Amino acid sequence: MRWRAMHTLAVIIVMVFSSSAFSAEAAAQADVKRSQDARLLVESFHNSLLAMMKTDGYEARAQLIQPVVSTLFDVQRIAQVSLGRTWRTLDENSQGEFTKLLERVIVATYADRFDGFTGQKFETDEVKQSRKGQVVRTHLHGKDQSVRLDYFLRNGKVFNIAADGVSDLSLRRADYANIIKSQGYEALRLELLTKVEEAQTP
Predict the structure, then answer these.
(1) Architecture (CATH level 2) of domain 2-200
(2) Each residue of 87-121: pLDDT tens digit?
(3) Cα–Cα distance for residue pair 106/157, rounded to 1 Å
(4) Which of 14, 39, 79, 117 is the most buried (most CB within 10 A)?
(5) For the sheet containing 134-141, what is the strand order?
């Protein structure tokens, strides 16, 4: 009986360790898959930006990049973080309207600034797993300089980009907070509408 008990215990120990090893391997494989997916998403976005640079006319560029922005970016999360406490004071309709406005701002910014191709190229350096998502580290190489672009993803969506270590989300939140504090939420909304209109102006 004693031998059988020891044998049973040994079998249980082996099974536990085998299960743990299997779980660890499965988790590692899942991380690899998420990293690959994140890389592909960012590289596809870069290809769209290059195509946009080679496209004449603001409206054509905006039409090209709009569905890409809508698919890739977690605009609602960006809107929520950008507004901070103000987000919670808005009703559901107002939150939705601001999210749509912010998407228009993002599209307008890309369509306005990426308006000419002079040999730029993107390079993916690495993909790192963070505590809650992935960070895709890349570089944009131009004729005279290079810019490091880090994309922060969660649940397959980009919620922040850092250029040479400067977080776009942090800058946006600080800028919006200053406007809301000094002039109110409506002033921020009108300023964002003005930015979209200015980007559309030749």
Answers:
(1) Roll (3.10)
(2) 999 999 999 999 999 999 999 999 999 999 999 99
(3) 15
(4) 79
(5) 121-129, 134-141, 146-154, 157-163, 166-167
